[in-house]
Amino acid sequence: MRFSTLVGAYLVVASVLASPIETADRQLHEVGHVTDADGKGYQLTDTGVPNIRVITSDRKDGYYIRPVSCHVEPDHVCKFYSESTRGIGYLIGEYKGPVDADFGIHWAAFYECWEVDLKACDAAITSCGWVGARGSDAKAPLNGDGETPFILDGQKFTPVRYHVDDHCQCYFLVQNGRGGPAAGLTVKGPDNDSFGMLQPYAYNCTFTL
Known about the structure:
Keywords: Signal. With 209 residues, the protein is mainly beta. Helices cover 10% and strands 49% of the residues.
């Protein structure tokens, strides 16, 4: 990610999504961190919602750093996003602390974090599992965000296998052989299987807790 691209993206995000006023307590309150391949950590703060921020302006060899993992403190939730040419890219995932997670193939550039009260803790579980691509170990997360197309590395794709966690039920929308819509596949977790001959193009996951 080049400096000029991400700076432009950050300015767009800051002007559109940033809250106009933040308290000093919120700015200084660490809710987690990300770590790069060299083991260097970058602090995440309570940004509030919606208030997407660039993770860091640090660079290495002319590119912004690429976090490889994240840690989120208890009673907090963080969302991480990729970068696109127009600013914020796709949602990589949403993580409820306490949790440590790897980003895998995803390059996290933006984030937002917030504190969750006790009544909202169950609702804050947002990862419902993953789907996998053909001929690759790459996985795209399933999130409880309504009807969503399958996105991997910023591109739509047709997955060949799925894993649904035990606290979710997912409805996979599939195409029939003539290109029109067909009855979908409902999967209640925990379940892990292949799509077989089905060609899913989108999904809708809900929480069963």
